[in-house]
Amino acid sequence: MTTTGFDPKDLLAHSSLGILATLKADGAPQLSPVQPYYDREAEVVLVSTTAGRAKARNLGRDPRAALEVTSGDGLSWATAEGTVELTGPGSDPRGPEVDALVDYYRRAAGEHPDWDEYRAAMVSERRVLISLRVSRVYGESAG
Question: What distances in angstroms separate CA 19 from CA 12, 67, 119, one per listed residue?
Fold first, then answer.
C-alpha cells in the first residue's frame, strides 16, 4: 500500500541503512543490515559485502532478494524486491570487479581519501558487489 503523496522510491533513494532479505538453503529468510545505494534511473540497489557472508552465499544459490528501509522516525517504510547479480570478488585492484565497487562507494559515500588503499582492501577482503535489479517497490507512510 502507498499513501497519497508518499513515494517509497524517495525513501529508498535517501536511506543509508536497510535490511536485506535473502533465502537460506532451507527456504527460511536470512536478514542482514546493509548500506544500500538506490539508483532510481537504473532501478537497481547496490550493496557491498564479502564473498564469505551468508547473504553472498544465499544469493549465489538463489538470486531473489528484498531490501527494506525505514524513515528515521519509524513512520514510513519502503521495500524493493527483485533479483540479484553478483560482481566479484576481484583479484586485480584495477580490474572491473573493483571498479564496480569504487563506483558504488562514490555513489553511496562520496570520494574516498585514498583510492589505492580502498582498492587493495576490496581485493584482500574479497568484496562482492550486490546489484539488486528492482522489479517492485512498495511502502507506506503513517505521516
Answer: 12, 6, 26
